[in-house]
């Protein structure tokens, strides 16, 4: 029997003049439900891998969407 896992990550960054830019990522994955009982450590690692993929995708998107400052430089990331 399959077990559906849904993970997500979102982040919002402030921009000049009270603006903001945000991005989110949600993933759904099916895993063998027996994995939860047979190998909980491996199950946990799979979930962590999904979160890591979401986090990286959000950070990459925010990096692409950053607005340059008045002097032409991109603000430092928090």
Q: Which percent bin holds the helix content?
A: 40-55%
**Low-confidence spans: pLDDT under 50, at least 5 residues?**
none
Oligomer: single chain
Net shape: elongated
The SSE string, one letter per element, is EEHH
The averaged pLDDT comes out at 87
Give the DSSP E fraction (strand runs of 2 or more residues). 35-45%
Largest sheet: 2 strands, antiparallel
The whole-angstrom Rg is 17 Å
Task: Give the beta-strand count.
Answer: 2
> Given the structure, what is the number of helices?
2
Strand order of the largest sheet: 1-2
SS class: alpha+beta
- Distance N to C terminus: 42 Å
Describe this structure in words.
The chain is an alpha+beta fold and about 80 residues long. The protein contains 2 helices and 2 strands; from the N terminus they run E-E-H-H. The chain has a two-stranded antiparallel sheet. The N and C termini lie far apart (about 40 Å).
List the helices and strands and how they pair.
Elements: E1 2-15, E2 19-32, H1 33-38, H2 40-65
Antiparallel strand pairs: 1-2
Q: What can be said about this structure in brief?
A:
The chain has 78 residues and is an alpha+beta fold. It is 41% helix and 36% strand.
Throw out a few tags for this protein.
alpha+beta; single chain; 2 strands; 78 residues; elongated; two-stranded antiparallel sheet
